[in-house]
# Entry
Amino acid sequence: MKEDVRLIDATLDGDRAAFGHLVQKYQDRLYSAMVHVTVNRSDAEDVVQEAFVRAYLKLDTFQKSSGFYTWLYRIAFNMAISRRRRAKSHLSLEQSREVAGNEPISSDEAVGHHMVREEANRALYGALSRLSEEHRVIIDLREMQGCDYETIGQLLELPVGTVRSRLHRARAQLRQLLTEPPTLDGRNEHSGPADEQTT
# Structure
């Protein structure tokens, strides 16, 4: 955090290269987070770029009592949510496959093992895509980014108690989606569009 503050001070003093170091430090982490918020790689790239631009322009408003990444994430998160609401798009199975990506496999890896892993990835990302927006984001922050409850609370502007209860519901919903048998159209039984569900 001290290094971030030093780079921020240097940027405010006119050293543009200092902000470039902040970009290099956090762009991959922020991109990974925004992929799970936007559920679209292209949108995530756009959001990350725009977030860094906005952070640069508003850097003099940054309160050094909090972490720079927390502040940056909040900017990107708000931009991603606004973008999603404007688009009003729903993640399809094909889009969820795009989010999951194709993992490279070694030459000696058994084909059967790869197929099982690919199916598991597809099921996981398909289930994640059908969680409500609030649940998907909180699962990503806790399980994929490893944030503690206090940090999640800061990022989402929620009390820690709400973070705990929302995470509990999100995990329960995800388990249900992963264990329900799929119907003929590929969706899990008794599961509607997740973004219509409430937290």
